[in-house]
Amino acid sequence: MPPIFFDLCPCPIIAVTGTKGKGTTATLIYKMLKTQYKDVFLAGNIGTPALEILPKLKKTSLAILELSSFQLIDLKKSPHIAVVLMVTSEHLDWHRDQSEYKSSKMSIVKFQKKNDFAVVNQDFENSRSFRVKTPAKVLFFSAQKEANGAYLKDNKIICLVDGPETIASINDVLLPGRHNLQNVLAATVVAKLQKVKAENIAKVIKTFKGLVHRLQLVRTIDGVKYYNDSFSTTPETSIAAIRSFPRNPKILILGGSSKNSDFQPLAREIVGDKTVKAIVLIGEEAKRMGDALAKSGPFTGPIMEGAKNMRQVVSAAQKLAKAGDIVLLSPACASFGMFKNYQDRGEQFTQEVNSLK
Question: pTM for this one?
Answer without folding.
Answer: 0.90
